[in-house]
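Problem: given the chain below (260 residues), write out its structure.
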Amino acid sequence: MDFDGAIFDVDGVLVDSPHEQAWRDALRELMEGPWSEIADKTSWGPDKFTSHVYQERLAGRPRMDGARAALEYFEVPDAERRATEYADHKQDMVVRLIEAGEFTAFDDALRFVLAVKHAGIRTAAASSSKNAGLLLGKIRLDEFAERTGLQSELIHPGLTLRDVFDADTSGREFEHGKPAPDIFLAAADELGAGPAACFVVEDAPSGVKAAKAGGMWAIGVARAGDEALLAAERADLVVDSLDDVELGALSSGELRRRSR
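Solution.
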C-alpha cells in the first residue's frame, strides 16, 4: 500500500501556537476578575493549569468542547453556561497573540511537510481551531528556506504554509469534534484518498484517537513529553521530532523511525 494522503493538525504539530497560553491566561483573568466570587469554590489555581492538563483535556478539541472540558476539570460551578464566556474570552486573546506574532513554526514540521509533498503525497490541514488559517497564512516558507538553506523547487517568493496544502478542513463545524474522526474523514475525502491510505500527524491524544477511529494511520508528535498518552491511543509511530520519521519508508506505505 502507498500513502495517498497526509493530514496535519496545526497547533502543536506545525506551529507552537499561543492557544495553550490563551486558554490559561483567559481562565486566570476570569477567575481573578468577573468570576472571583466563585474562584474559591473551584479546584483552579494559577499553577494548576499545567501543560499536561492542556494536552489531556483541551488540545485538539473544538473551542466550546475545550472550554467545557477545562471548566469541568477545575470543578467550576455552572460550567455549561460559563463555557461560552470562557471560549469567547480565549478567542479574543488568541487572536491578539497571533496578530502580535506570538508564535513560531516548528522547523522539523516545515521540513517534513515539504518532504511529504516531494514524495508525491497529497496533504491537508485539519485543525479544530478556527484560527488555523490565520496562523498558516503568516508562515512564509520562502523565508524559512532562505534562513535554513533549504533547496526545494516547490518554494517561490511569497509562498506560505497555507499555500502548500491541497485541502484544508480546519475550523469547520462538524457534527462531532475530535476524538470523533469527522474532520479527518472530510480531509481524506477532499484529497480523494481512502482513510486506510492516509496518515494523520497529531500531538494531542484526542487527535490520535480520532485518526484511529477513522481507520487511518497516526503519527504522534510528543512535543510535550507525552509519549505515553499518545501511545495509549494506539499511535502507529510516536516521535519527539518529525525529523525522526524515516522519509524513504513513506513511499512504501510504512511509518518507521529513522535509524541513527
